[in-house]
Amino acid sequence: MDRLSRILEATHLQGSLIGMIQLSAPWHIDHEQWVGAPTHYIVEGEAVLEHEGAAPQLLSAGDLVMFPQWQKHQLRSPGAAGPPVSIREIVENNNGPPWRPGEWLEEPLIMKAGGGGARTVILSMVFSLDTAKLHPMFAAMPRLVHLSPRDIDLGPWLPSLLQFMEMEKARHEPGYAAISSRIADLIFLQILRAQALRSPGAGGFARALSDPAIGALLQALHEAPGASWTLTSMARRAGLSRSTFSVRFREVMDVTPAAYLRGLRMDTAAERLRTGTSVKQAFERSGYTTLYAFTTAFAARFGTTPAQFRASARPRPGL
């Protein structure tokens, strides 16, 4: 079994939500702060993605976007104006079943919204993962993954999947949670594989997978990001001299070892805060020697203090 297959084989979801949203322009949806990896695949039509720190992005049929760690974001029809409607409100208006992270939906979630104009269909999903067992390949993914139809093609699956959801909605038969969990696993693994293989000549895990030295170090960093890592200890773990290690790491990952470790520590702390860990505990496990240094680094990455981030990120019961 090749190395990528071994990584994918060890990746499992704790729960998932799969929903089909049939929209007619104008429409504007606010995907509020929650927990998990929200993912949207444009089945038909167009949508504009908006999130903090980025310009609006037009998505067309075949585009897939995923936030590996949830970020508040909005989707709207091109040209839509006015305030957005919460996704929770849309679920309630369609009598959708309740869902909590770490669970599987017991029945299909099929929703309709909009003003009667141009049609857009979106397959929206939320993947819940065991954050204690994340492989570095997932943890090191960019804040926003955008796969084009050239990168990933769900087209051959979609007619069967959408038909299956509609049939299950009409039948109300038991067993949907188990079947949908397998579907979610398949889609999620396809996304991970596409992201890893999309740019084999670029930096990141696509190249780290084929670099034994850097790959071994990344595994160690992600297993213990709060350890007392230095350039010397990282080079030693990779089995390289300091100078060779610094050059190769930068070539593979497109960042310096120090910058990568800093980002990893902050992302790890953010995920802990999302799941209810106290600021004090997150700091003590971060690898920083002072709370001030930890808070400063966190604010530089996320634009807010750890305490404010924790307060805004804690999930409300049910979706």
In short:
Helices cover 42% and strands 20% of the residues.
Task: Walk me through this protein's architecture.
With 319 residues, the chain is of the alpha+beta class. 42% of the residues lie in helices and 20% in strands. It has helices at residues 3-9, 87-93, 136-139, 158-171, 176-197, 205-208, 212-223, 231-238, 242-253, 257-274, 279-284, 291-302, 306-313, and strands at residues 13-24, 28-31, 37-44, 46-51, 57-60, 64-66, 73-76, 85-86, 109-114, 119-129, 145-147. It has a six-stranded mixed beta sheet with strand order 9-1-10-3-6-11, with helices on both faces. The longest helix is centred in the middle third of the chain and has 22 residues, at 176-197.
Helicity, as a percent range: 40-55%
Strand arrangement across the biggest beta sheet = 9-1-10-3-6-11
Strand residues, percent? 15-25%
Find the structural class using helix and strand composition: alpha+beta
Largest sheet: 6 strands, mixed
Q: How do the SSEs run, as a string of H and E?
A: HEEEEEEEEHEEHEHHHHHHHHHH
Approximate shape: globular
The radius of gyration is: 21 Å
Number of helices: 13
Span between termini = 39 Å
List low-pLDDT spans.
none
Mean pLDDT over all positions: 85
